[in-house]
Write a structure and sequence with these properties.
Elements lengths: L9 H7 L18 H9 L16 E10 L14 E11 L4 E3 L2 H25 L11 H6 L1 H18 L5 H29 L3 H7 L4 H22 L2 H19 L4 H21 L5 H5 L2 H8 L2 H16 L1
Antiparallel strand pairs: 1-2, 2-3
Helix pairs in contact: 2-12, 3-5, 3-10, 5-6, 6-7, 6-8, 8-9, 9-10
Length: 319
């Protein structure tokens, strides 16, 4: 396959705004239109609420700074000045609207995004493994008694990732988040008004009553959207296959057209691919999950500055 605004490719960016040329350095950028954007890129990170992106394809450049710190005005016993040399290195990436760099906030958000995915995957796999364990297995009874807890943990991890996910198109991100909220609300309703009166856990009730998929389905629809985004942006085979396995498994259970053997096979495939998908996230560079940060900085500019910047970039293109 080829993270969603539809998300990370340059072709997609062209669909959002006519693609301007990529400046190669801060000095080549239009001013004053770019001044506000450049200050934000250099001095601040981008919060999760504003971020939604895909892989950045821009090339990095390195900047070094050195200087004397400490010891200024102080002398040693020999009368010479004591000086420490401090060198700081930053990598700047050339984005669509200007250079940007990764700051600690970006790193923290990406790590939390990935931790959310690992939490969702590990919780799902633990709960789903109960379907493959014999009834006399020592941990089988414990798993059966805590299925709802694992569902809650997995849904929480997914919610964290959907909050921090980087997608250029904000509407797509909000749609995935709305599906998650709808799924959580449906899960609570099904648990309170259907599962509890029946004396069952929510998960067991959904397994025994296929129509209950309507209540929890939006949560898995949000998960499907997330893995689709990852597959589309990074060409991950496991994410691409999961995009089909998840809805097919749920729809097969809902419709009753799938026997238990087929459902168990699909569930096993889902478990294996989910492990691979979550684990491989930690093999990617941090910048991949950030995307082109200059796009988010551009979107945060006032309309007047956006218009002026686009005009200047168009002039650069003509020249």
């Amino acid at each position: 396959m080829a993270a969603a605004n539809c998300c990370c490719s340059r072709a997609t960016m062209a669909g959002i705004i006519a693609t301007p040329p990529q400046p190669s350095s801060p000095a080549s950028l239009p001013k004053p239109a770019f001044a506000s954007l450049h200050r934000r890129i250099r001095s601040s990170g981008f919060g999760a609420a504003a971020a939604v992106s895909g892989r950045s394809t821009v090339r990095p450049t390195r900047t070094r700074r050195s200087g004397a710190v400490g010891g200024e005005g102080e002398t040693s016993s020999s009368g010479s000045f004591t000086t420490e040399e401090k060198e700081e290195e930053k990598v700047f990436y050339e984005g669509v609207y200007g250079p940007w760099t990764i700051d600690p906030l970006d790193v923290r958000e990406v790590i939390l995004y990935r931790v959310g995915l690992v939490t969702a995957a590990s919780s799902f796999i633990t709960a789903a493994s109960a379907a493959f364990l014999p009834s006399d297995f020592p941990l089988a009874a414990t798993l059966q008694q805590n299925l709802d807890l694992f569902y809650l943990l997995g849904a929480g991890g997914l919610g964290l990732s959907l909050y921090l996910i980087h997608i250029y198109v904000t509407e797509i991100k909000r749609t995935l988040q709305a599906l998650w909220v709808l799924g959580i609300a449906g899960s609570l309703a099904a648990h309170s008004f259907l599962a509890v009166p029946a004396g069952e856990s929510l998960v067991k009730y959904v397994v025994d009553n296929p129509n209950a998929v309507w209540f929890v389905g939006p949560t898995f629809a949000a998960l499907t959207g997330l893995v689709f985004k990852e597959g589309l942006c990074y060409g991950k085979l496991e994410a691409g296959i999961l995009t089909f396995v998840i809805p097919i498994t749920l729809l097969g259970h809902l419709s009753g057209l799938m026997d238990d053997g087929v459902k168990l096979s699909l569930l096993g495939i889902w478990m294996v691919l989910f492990v691979i998908f979550a684990g491989r996230k930690f093999t990617q560079p941090i910048k991949d999950d950030i995307g082109d940060k200059s796009v988010f900085m551009f979107n945060a500019l006032p309309d007047g500055e956006k218009k002026a910047l686009l005009q200047q970039l168009e002039l650069q293109k003509l020249n």
